[in-house]
Amino acid sequence: MEVESGDPLEEVASLIVRSSCNVALTGAGVSTASGIPDFRGPQGLWRMVDPEKFEISYFHDHPDEVWDLFVEFFLSTFNAKPNPAHYALAELEKLGKLCAVITQNVDMLHQAAGTRNVVELHGSLKDVICLQCGYRYPLSEALRQRTRGAPRCPKCGGVLKPDVVFFGEPLPRDALREAMMLAEMADVFIAAGTSLAVYPANQLPLIAKKRGAKLVVINAEETYYDFAADYVFRGKVEEVLPALVEKVKGMLF
Questions:
Q1: Which of the residues 62, 86, 110, 122 is marked catalytic?
Q2: How far apart are CA 194 and CA 196, in angstroms?
Q3: pTM, rounded to two decimals
Q4: What is the C-alpha to C-alpha distance for residues 233 and 215, in angstroms, rounded to an integer?
Q5: Which end of the chain is less congested by CB atoms within 10 angstroms, N or C?
Q6: From CA 198, how far away is CA 224, in angstroms rounded?
Q7: Per-residue model confidence as pLDDT tens digits over 116-134
Q8: H helix intervals, the chain
Q9: CA 119/CA 117 separation, integer angstroms
Q10: Is residue 110 flagged as an active site residue?
């Protein structure tokens, strides 16, 4: 991606440099370059599997089926590596110009890229949790012991569930509270790789905007809140974010 002098990207870089708190919200589009399909795109997961099967009520009724689908469609995430978008945000944090990444992703690639302050709105693939006794257990261990269907809790024998937010489940209270606080603190709020279609995460940019932040949207497709953005960059996040960080570095050094 070529960025010419006078491009709005330079204006955003200048805002970031002058701001005391910049916050990024990331969605599935940040991880597609790592080989992880998004959910709603032309090749998205929900075109291959019925999203209703990832309703929490369906999981309770059919845990074996859902676990088989989960392993088939999500297990490849374990082999994914961070891409330039993840590394760009990690570098922005190291430069002291990113307060936090709020992510809708469960792949833990922000942490793998080196970002320290990550708020996971939809949980992560790190653990499983027992629906009967609440015991938390590493997902990797549960997968090793699993033969087929739903793995069972080593403490009580209850059904283990991936510690990710299913449809119909509330977001983790502490994560949502921290995300809302960050949105209120932000001087610049960057929504990257997300269609801003999922509630309540899609309210965070509006909270930031209402509190006076500049809203920057970076996404390959139109989003639900392009109309509210101060800057919209239609492109691949793995190209736009590194270009933006290079601009920031050029202004800092």
A1: 122
A2: 5
A3: 0.92
A4: 11
A5: C
A6: 10
A7: 999 999 999 999 999 999 9
A8: 8-18, 56-61, 63-74, 84-94, 109-113, 139-145, 173-185, 204-210, 237-252
A9: 7
A10: no
